[in-house]
Amino acid sequence: MIFISFQWENLAEIRRQEPGQTVQFLTGDSHDFSDAFLDKVAAEGFDLDIHVFTVTRELVERIHARGIKLNVWTVDWKDRAANFVEWGVEYITSNIFE
Description:
single chain; about 100 residues; alpha/beta; five-stranded parallel sheet; 5 strands
């Protein structure tokens, strides 16, 4: 099971109650992915769930450099999904099955 939430505090509470549980901080397309933010995510042991139009190869590399796993939502285009797979994205959320 993976818990996802836009609410940092909810994920922190899950982490306190179930330290080994996978949690993903869910973000919209206007979130700031500064080094300080990514360091905070890594320190908490969270993964990220990022909107499809925000993810670039460079961002994937910065995220993975910190040991954070990445879910991209919502990827409804086969060519875009192929790019994310090529870049090493761990999870893809989609409404299509091709």
